[in-house]
Every structure is written in C-alpha cells, then in structure tokens.
Amino acid sequence: MLSENKVCRIGILSLALLLSFTTLASALPPEHEPLKPRVPIQERAYYRNLQAPLYQDTKASPSDVVEAGSKIYQRICVNCHGVTGKGDGLSAGFLPMLPRNFTNCLFQRKRTDGELFYVIKFGSWPMPPMVPSITEVEAWTVIPYLRTFCQH
Fold first, then answer.
1. In whole angstroms, what is the distance from residue 151 CA to residue 17 CA?
2. Residue 126, preceding peptide bond in cis (omega within 30° of 0)
3. Where are the domains of the chain?
4. What is the pLDDT of residues 2-53, one digit of tens each?
5. Distance in angstroms (rounded) separating the CA atoms of residues 89 and 80
6. In this structure, what are the phi and psi dihedrals at residue 37, rounded to the nearest 5 degrees?
C-alpha cells in the first residue's frame, strides 16, 4: 500500500512531466508547410470537389452537427491538435512535427472540406488514418467543428 507521502510525490512527478511535455510542445517550431496539399496529386481534383453528405457548406452547418463534431474532436483529435486547435495538444511534443494548426485561417481558406476529409480518412504523415477508428460520417461531422477555429 502506498503511503500518503509516496502518493503525493507521484502526483507531483506526474504534474511535472505533464508540464514539461506541454512546454516542449510550445517550444517546437511552427507546423511544417501548412499550405502544402496533403492529397496525392492523382486524387486531388476528386477530393477538392467532394461534397459532404451532411451539409452543403460548413459555415452554414446546423449547430447540432457542429456540436457532434466537437464531441468527436474532444475524443479523437484533442490529444495532438489541442483544445484550441493550435496543434499544441499533450501528445504534440512527441511528434516529429507539430500537428495542423486549425486556427490558421489561410490554411482554412486554402483547403476544401473534401481535402480535410481525405486527411482524416487516410492520414498524412505523421497523422495516422482515423477511419475506421471513426466512421466516414463522423469524419465529415468533425470538419464543421474544425472550421470554427478560424475566427476570420
């Protein structure tokens, strides 16, 4: 059985590790080539024009879709992309490059929903494919929430 003193030391050590990982993520350089397309060139035209089956325009998505996307993001994406979408999640410091910064409005304007769907579904190194961890419908559902990180 652990004494109260040992439990306190373990808690302090855990907090120190968490703080150091968070600090490490914030000290990493900005994301690498944020505007570079991640969809292979032979599939780019198809995915640029691919429309979501749930909504016509992410900006006009129903609030229940955005809320459902938020829940998926909190469950699947937040560890790497962070609570505020800046790519500074707790796991970011362990990656060879920072995850996508969804607050980058230039990136948001440059990438279509279909391109975002491609990356969520198939991954883009170092991001692994998220489907089948989530369904394709869930992948489409998270995109309107990702769009909320750009406030311009």
1. 32
2. yes
3. 4-147
4. 566 654 555 555 554 444 544 544 555 566 688 889 999 999 999 999 999 9
5. 4
6. -60, 140
Where do we find the tokens 């995109």? 143
CB 97 within 8 A of CB 31: yes
What's phi and psi for 120, nearest 5 deg?
-65, -45
Q: Any idea what DSSP says for residue 76?
A: I
CATH number for region 4-147: 1.10.760.10
Angle, CA of 50, 52 and 57, to the nearest 5° = 105
Tens-place pLDDT, residues 50-71 = 999 988 888 888 999 999 999 9
Report which DSSP code applies to 2.
-
Residue type, 3: S
* Helix locations, 50-123, DSSP H: 63-72, 78-81, 105-110, 113-122
